[in-house]
Each structure stands twice: as structure tokens, then as C-alpha cells.
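TL;DR need C-alpha cells for one chain.
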Amino acid sequence: MRKLLAMTLVSALAVSLAGCSGKTDSAATTAGTTQAETKAAQTTAAKVDTAKPELVFKYAELNSDDNINTKVGYKFAEYVDEISKGRIKIEVYSASTLGDEKTCLNALQMGGGTVDIYRGNTNSLSDYGFKKLNMFGLPFIFTSRESMWKVLEDKDLGQAFLSEGSEVGAGMVGLYYTDEGARNLFTSKEIKSLDDIKGKKIRVPETSLMMDTMSALGAQPTPISYSELYSSLQTGVVDGAENGLPGYSSNKFYEVAPYYLMSGHTFSPGIVMMAEAKWNALSSDDKEILLAAGQKASDWNKGEIVSEETALKKELENKGVTVVEMTAEDKAKAQSACESVWATYTAGMEDLLKKMIEVQK
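>> reply
TL;DR here they are.
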């Protein structure tokens, strides 16, 4: 009887162990599968997290992040990312992080690397062999924002001029234009008309065209780096400078130069250029991506600048800035005074100048 009971207990124990063994194996298998899936998911996530764009370009801008010019740069970067599906990345460096204007233009000329893309003003290109684009910076060449865009969008003028950097051996290729508004004069001492800037030291970019323009208007042009302008106004190194409303506001020049004359002496557009060496290394598809993104950024800019300027003017007046409008008589006198500048910078291009004027009508 005891022997039979023992055998029965052994049998029951064996069955029980067999059942436990089955459950353990099953649990182990399930755990193993779960770990494998988790590991696979982690590997996939890691690949996504560490995925890098195929091409990265450094985009330099002199102004701070709240300036319309810098905002356009960020829009361009956004559109490039969107159209390329993340393959191409534009890194925007604002507030002269990568150097002043001359440093950035020299970097493009040398093939990029420290700066691959730069937004400059067309009136800053005369010292790099540009002639056609330089015409956009002639004083009083455009009568309004609308007339400027008529020229920029003309296939024989603005669009054709984008390639001038390659034609003259400057090592730069134009991608698209921007509108930073008319450039006006501002000073630390009170001015009531254009006559009041005569004899005053006015900061200008380091270009021959702007120096000649200020000289024609009777001022003393003083080339100073943009990053040093605030302190130069503050300490009296210069009496004034010239810039559009966005740049004047975002850089807080009104704190040290609260008199703003709506001279509109130049309505020259900005131009975003790329180092030609970088451009030539791109595939035709990638070139199209940058041009398409540039067009979208330019269109965004056109819609934004008008409302921004209106708001800025009101905001500045509320901060105590004295805004002085130019009289029609003053504008006529200024234009007449600058005819010598037109002649100097359009020699041999009189037909183009004539066409630019005709297109605006």
C-alpha cells in the first residue's frame, strides 16, 4: 500500500513538473521575443535620431534674429529642409557671428567653408567686380517697392543678373533677392531736412558706391564695421548712419541716434549668394531645390516687409524717435546731386540703365 502511494506521488510530481516546465519554456520564449522586439525598436529609433543630412551649409547674416533679413534666412532654411525632405540643412548664423560683411564676402570668394551662403546688399558688391547688380544700389534708381520688384522679376534684368558673380569671376552665385526696405539716414543730433547731414560723419558699408553716394549728398562717408556701429554712434566716432527701418529697430540704434530721416536714398534689394565652388559641387536636382526654396523665401519676404515697416515706424515713434519725412523738393535736389554717381557706375551700361527705368513705368 505504501509502495503504491509512493509511486502515485512520484507520478503526480512528474506531471506537475512537466507542466511547470512547459510554462517556463513558454514564458522564456515570450520574454525572448519581447526583448528582441524592444532591441529592434531601439535600433530603429537610434538610426532615426542619429540620421544626418547629406549636405550642410553655413548661412551668414549680420542682423539679429528679430530682423526681417534674418527671418528670411530662417524661412529659406525651413523651405530647403521641407523640399529636400531633410537631406539638405541650412545653418543660419545671425548677428555677425561669422564675421562682418567683408569677411563673409571674402569667404564666399574663397570657396566657402567658414561661410557658404551670405545675404548681402547689392550696393556692397562694387569692390568685387560686380557692375550690373551694383546698379540696383544707385541712389534714387527705384521710385518705389513695386517698381523695384518689377526690375528684379524681369528675366532680362534681375533674374539674369543673379549669375553675374560667375561671369565676372567673383566666385559667388545669386540664389534669390530680398526686400529689406528703403535705406534711410539717422543721426544722433537733430536733423530737419537732407541739408542737415552736410558735413556730418555718416557711417557707410565698406564700398565705393555708398561712399560716393554720401559724398554726393554732402556728408563725410565713414566706413565702419556694422558690428561696431552702435558704439561708434554712442561715442561720437560718427554722427549718423543709414539703414532700413528693420535694421535700425532690431539693432536698437534709436537709443543712440533718435533722429530718422526718410531719405529713401537707396531702395537696393538684398541678395542671397552662395560660394560658387559649393554651388558647382551640387547636382542639378539639389540646385533646383535651393532655387525653389529661395523663391518661396522671397515671396514670404514680399508679403511680410510692408506690414512690418508700418508697425515699426509707429513703434519707433512711440519710443521717442523723431521721424522726418523728405519733401518732394529735397528728393528732386538729392536725385540731381547723385547724377554724377549714376554716370560713374553705369559707364558702358547705359542701355541697361534705360531699360531699368522703362520697366518701372
